[in-house]
Amino acid sequence: MSWYLQRAGVDHVVLERSEAFHAWKHERWDAFTLVTPNFQCRLPEHPYDGEEPEGFMRREQILAWLDRFMEKLDPPLHEGVTVTRLRAGEDGGFVLQTDEGVLHAEQVVLCVGGYHRPWAPPAVERALPQGIHAVHSNAYRSPSALPDGAVLVVGTGQSGAQIAEDLHLEGRAVHLCLGDAPRVARRYRGKDVVTWLEEMGHYDLTITDHPEGNAARREANHYVTGRDGGRDLDLRAFAAQGMHLHGLLRRIDEDGVAHFDDDLAERLDAADATYDRINEAIDRYIEAQGLDVAEPPSRYTPVWTPPPGPPAPLDLRAAGVTSVVWCTGFRPDWSWVELPFLDDTGYPDHVRGVVEGVPGLHVLGLPWLHTWGSGRFAAIARDAEHLSAHVVTRASLAVAARAA
């Protein structure tokens, strides 16, 4: 947003409560990589500039790429400034209370994303036996940073599946509690699946045209990895290699025994069904376009299935579990924004980032703000350019009104 506002000559400041790229620097594990190919990294006049467009940047490479963009941008950035309250001004515009004083602005763009507070199931979290080390995914760094012993990983979104693999590759005993995230192949018929989906226009599908509508914003992302050049994440294969898979974590008793829903097979089957549906959609696209590419492989065959019978409870101490990694997502916190801009679900009520109910207020960087790529490097620049046009137009009208 600052890039486009600078080029339009709109006076603005960028407030950051910590430091630029804080989350990338301090809230990603050591082995973190992108899960989308590097070619989808597109900032304004700063596309991916490395030698592996089909590869997946590691955390330190991502930071270096972002630093190069920052050098080009040179924004009016104020780090270490926390906005504690945002309210409407008495004579129009907005008043921002910060820990450095009060600011007045004609317009505000909220670029804080939607992942504000790490969340874990409160009752289960409180029931963890004393002595078990617990961290959220944003605080996990590496297997060696955890106490020796088995690890309970709760959740199988992108973070949960990748962290479970990270621990598994280091030889740690892992108990993985599944969530409802689907999976996707890394490569299919000669190309990365993301490349196919981009060619098919999937990343241009808008939230208004999505078959599920706004409900798509609440769906978990597909798990896959870019580690070591990229590969599938097959939880069944992990189980065949000794990882312990469980259904949804339901409760932990006072004696430290964990209980799970009897839904492990159902969750694995649902993830595989999505995997197959995506591949079948690619098959249809290839056929419709008459493309001469590799023949489709055999349909996925499960390499492991859960044993019959109800799920056995897990005595955490007896199993040697010394750590828990919560990969159960985040919850938004808009409590500091004292403006009527949320819908009935607590999500900002906007149209492509324009909060029509509060003139002059905008949001940017939310998942599915406009398309699937909105919360990612793939389309953040496109969204910012579109939204900046609204900001610039409104700023120009304000200047004209003052001059009249």
TrEMBL record:
The keyword Oxidoreductase applies. It comes from the Bacteria. GO terms for molecular function: flavin adenine dinucleotide binding; monooxygenase activity. Pfam families: Pyr_redox_3. SUPFAM superfamilies: FAD/NAD(P)-binding domain. Gene3D superfamilies: FAD/NAD(P)-binding domain. Keywords: Oxidoreductase. This is MSMEG_0569 family flavin-dependent oxidoreductase.
